[in-house]
Amino acid sequence: MPTSRDSTTMTAVSPADPPALLLTGPARHGVVRYARDVADQVRLLDPDATVVQVSDPAELVGVAAGYPRVHLHVTDRLLGRGPEEAAALVERVADVTRLTVTLHDVPQPSDGVVNLPRRVSGYARVAAAAAGVVVNSRHEALLLVEHDVVPADRAVAVIPLGASPASATAPASASAALGDAHPAALVALVAGYVYPGKGHDDVVRAVAVAADRLRAAGHALAEVAVVAVGGPSAGHEHDVDALRAEADRRGVDLRVTGSLDDEAFRAALRGPGIPVAAHQHLSASRTLLDWGEQGRRPLVVSSRYAREMAALRPGTLTPYAPGLLPEALVHAWRDPASTALPPGTDLAPTLADVAAAYRTWWAGA
C-alpha cells in the first residue's frame, strides 16, 4: 500500500473519491498556484476527480451548491476585502455543501495588534464552518490553537507543502553555477515578493556587516549586493524605495529583478550568490522548496517552523540564530559549496505524496 508523509509520520494511504476541488483567484498567486498543483496531482491519481475553476470568488457559493462535497484552499486575502468578508463567503459555501478547507497564511503576531484579532476571528469562523481543516505545517496547527482559531481538541490535519515531482531530488546544476561567482563578490539572494517583514532589510544590514568583517580580514570585495528575486507585492512599491535608501546608506547595491516568468525565476535561484530566507514569521513557505528544487541550500533564520522543515527534509537548509546572519554569510562566502545541495538530495514529500495524503484524509473527513 502506498504511503504519504506529514511533518513527522508516514501513514497508510487508502484511495477515496475526493470532493470537487474549487480553484479561485489570480493564476500567479502563490496559494492559487499551489491549489492547482495539488489538484493536478489528485487528478493524476484519479482521472475522474472534479476540478472546477471559479473565475470570481463571489461565484463560489453557486458553484459549490452543485456538489455534495467540495474542498477549498483559503486565505482571507483572496476571498474578500478583509477577513470578515472572506469568512462570510466561506460560511455561505458551507451552508450549501459539505466543505473542507486548507488554511493558508494563518494568523500570527506579525499581523500586528490591529489585524491579528480581525484575522483570528475570521479564520475561527472559517474553521467552525468547515467539516475538516488542513494546514501545511505542525507550526501552523499550533498557531491555530495558540490564537484560539480552533479549540485544542479540534482535529486539524497536517499535510506539508509538496515538492514538484520533477524536482523530487536536487539537480546537479547548482553547484556548477556557483563556480561562476566572482571570488571577490559578496551577494545575497532573497526570493519572493518584497514587503515589510519579509527580511530584505535584515539581509541588507547583515550583508553590510559581513562585508566589513571580510574586509577587516584582508579580503578586497569588488561587489557587495543584495538581489531581490521578485518584485514588490501590490501596494508595497514604496517599500522598495525605502529598502534602496537603506542599502545606499550601508554601501550595499540593491537589485530588484521585478516579476519573472517561471524559467527566469528558477535561473535566478540557481545563479551565483548566497540564498537567504530571513523572514522570521514563516509558517508554511513554498520559497524553501523553490530553493531546494533548484539545488540550493538557503540560510534560514531559526524558528519553530524552520526546525520542523529541517527535520522534514534533512540537510536542505542551513539554520542560523536570530542576529547571527552576518556570521552565517561570512561562512557561506568562504564555503560556497555549503549553499548547494548534493545532487540527488531527497526533497520528499512530493506533490504526489501530498495528493495521496489528501485522498486518505478526505476518506474520513
Question: What would the keywords be for this entry?
Answer:
Rossmann fold, 6-stranded parallel sheet, globular
Commentary on this structure:
It is a single chain. The chain has 365 residues and is of the alpha/beta class. The chain folds into two domains: 3-162 and 350-364, 3-Layer(aba) Sandwich (Rossmann fold); 166-339, Rossmann fold, CATH 3.40.50. It has 14 helices and 14 strands. The strands form three sheets. The protein has a six-stranded parallel sheet, with helices on both faces. The chain has a six-stranded parallel sheet with strand order 11-10-9-12-13-14, sandwiched between helices. The longest helix has 18 residues, at 112-129. The model is unreliable at 1-15 (pLDDT under 50).
> From N to C, what is the helix and strand string?
EEEHEHEHHEHEHEHEHEHEHEHEHEHH
Shape: globular
Provide the domain count: 2
Q: What's the total count of β strands?
A: 14
List low-pLDDT spans. 1-15
Which class of the largest domain in CATH terms?
A: Alpha Beta
Which radius of gyration do the C-alpha atoms yield? Answer: 21 Å
| Strand neighbour order, sheet with most strands | 4-3-5-6-7-8
Distance between the termini: 20 Å
| CATH domain fold name of the largest domain | Rossmann fold
Number of helices: 14
CATH superfamily of the largest domain: Glycogen Phosphorylase B
